[in-house]
Write a structure and sequence with these properties.
0% helix, Jelly Rolls, single chain, 13 strands, six-stranded antiparallel beta sheet, three-stranded antiparallel beta sheet, mainly beta
């Protein structure tokens, strides 16, 4: 099987909702630390080529997954497969941090189909 992975250790970016940093990456996998600012919310989205596992490490995460909404505290994990509509937001007043493990044959930033975005990104 051939893998495409556009991520490399040390990559980072700032977004309207917070920041992400690649902790490590290899063929078919990527590990990111994602920090969501208080009140920040990622777009409602899905991916065609990757599944994700999220482990909350600080704060409270409000997760939407295929229409279901639930909260997770530090130490808790959720996962969503390829094609599952999802998002995460920080309802708290402190930064919320989670570790995201991406798994798939193609790992790249443009594998995002957005359905809703507070910040006007398409």
């Amino acid at each position: 099987m051939r893998f495409r992975n556009d991520y490399a250790r040390g990559q980072r970016d700032s977004r309207p909702w917070g920041t992400w940093e690649v902790l490590d990456a290899g063929p078919g996998w990527c590990v990111k630390r994602i920090t969501v600012n208080p009140g920040g919310i990622l777009s409602l989205q899905k991916h065609q080529h990757r599944a994700e596992v999220w482990t909350i490490t600080a704060g409270i995460a409000r997760v939407t997954q295929d229409g279901r909404v639930f909260e997770l505290a530090a130490g808790h994990t959720t996962q969503h497969g390829v094609g599952v509509v999802h998002r995460v937001e920080n309802p708290g007043d402190e930064p919320m941090v989670f570790v995201e493990v991406q798994l798939g044959s193609e790992l790249r930033e443009d594998d995002i189909e957005r359905f809703e975005d507070r910040y006007g990104r398409g």
